[in-house]
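Reading a protein record of the kind used here takes little practice once its layout is understood. The reader may check this reading against the record printed directly beneath this paragraph.
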Amino acid sequence: MFDDNDDDPVTLTVNKSYANKYQNWREKEEKQKLIARYGSDIEDSSDDESEDDNAEDWTDDVEKEFLRCYSILKKRDPKIYDSNTQFFNTPESSSANDSHETNKRKKEKKMTLKDAEIQYAFAEAMHKDDDHNDKHIQTTGKKSIIEEQEEIKK
């Protein structure tokens, strides 16, 4: 059994199906840890960014205006200190900004169950706090010193 005279080489084989299952299990475990630590917004974080990947708003005219404005800044032209000077005044850029703003409104953050629960708990806490203050006023017949000072500040 443990003879050094054995000439047969020892081979180690890996069960590939078990290795794949184990790898998938570890990935799911890591994902659960991330969700527990940072919340469920991990997967949607790349969608929430408002980067312009296709550079739809960056046209040749906008680039020319930008370069013109940049050169004025580099030269330290006195026009940059004049509040009436407009550096970007093409109607195309304003319409592009309008379309960009409407896209932002459409891409508002989705309300998740977690967000709804937090909002509900906050509203309940505020409601209970208001009820507590009202009961305090009713039982004592007068407000506390802190409450009176807060009213004076208002």
Notes: The two ends are 91 Å apart (CA to CA). The CA atoms of residues 52 and 58 lie 9 Å apart. Residues 57-110 form one domain.
